[in-house]
Amino acid sequence: MRALVYHGPGRKAWEDVPDPRIVDDTDAVVRVDAVTICGTDLHILKGDVPEVTPGRILGHEAVGTIEAVGAGVRTRKPGDRVLVSCITACGTCRFCREGRYGQCLGGGGWILGHTIDGTQAERVRVPFADTSTHPVPDGVADEEILMLADILPTGYEVGVLNGGVRPGDVVAVVGSGPIGLSAIMTARLFSPGHVIAIDLADSRLEAAKRFGADITINSSRQDPLEVVQSLTAGLGADVTVEAVGVPAAFEDAVRLVRPGGRVANVGVHGEPVTFHLEKQWIRDVTITTGLVDTGSTPTLLRLVTGHQLDAGQFVTHRFPLSDFDRAYEVFGAAGETGALKVVLTR
């Protein structure tokens, strides 16, 4: 089969590799019908994730059709159309029993495209298929369901739920890429008072308006602190969500939050970040971090299927499965191309 193989920082290739096979009796082999690229993949290619070694097939999001299952798989069968989650869950370890699948101790967590071969390929082996795939409802497009593999549960769980968004809150989202837009979209489920989107690219701020932000700030032209304080009588935002993964974005998220507020860090950071504890120790600020668990995926599936969330609007560019070079080029230059999510299909 063909797959996108990582060959070290800045180097990747669409090339021939062996077909995946059943290794453990809880495995499934899934034919990839639709796949996307994540900002984390860009971090990998920059060298920010050294655990990803040369020779690894990239990718951790897919919708596909099961071709084979191991003897221990109970609820999936060949021919089933499934969402492949970005998080793999053994289902039995301490953290899985708590619903914290991202911290799985039994061989799961974020492994696809990280510590085992991933989804940017014609086929993928998915461990723990019963607990790491979700049946796709009839009548919903592959590309809509694909947005539930990672970005929507990540923005919702690590941003909105960890940030404790409540009715009437002022929520400031730093970064209007796909994760920030996911946080904006799902924050609206809790009836916030204001959702503020902050970014450097006007194209992404325009997208943020479509996804539910009622105030947008281009931080290259305007200080977000002035706007946030003017809306909150000088207090600051109740919740800030850091959705970029660079030091300046985290520092902005901390700077914008009110005393007693919550900062939810979602961004993938590849270098140290300064946290000014000498200024923040007295402000009763809560800071959360996290890897998505995907425990919310069934709920989000119902919301997308019921047309309460429009997941399809994330998709801005479409490519054939073999055109990864062009897809990465477009996605990596999102400020110029306006790309939110790119989808590659068989």
UniProtKB/TrEMBL annotation:
Family statement: Belongs to the zinc-containing alcohol dehydrogenase family.
Q: What is this protein called?
A: Zinc-dependent alcohol dehydrogenase family protein
The UniProt record lists the keyword Iron-sulfur: no
This protein's cofactor list reads: Zn(2+)
Record PROSITE patterns: ADH_ZINC
The superkingdom of the source organism is Bacteria
Kindly give the SUPFAM superfamilies that the UniProt entry links to this protein.
Answer: GroES-like, NAD(P)-binding Rossmann-fold domains
Q: Which organism is it from?
A: Actinoallomurus spadix
The answer, when asked if Zinc is one of the entry's keywords, is yes
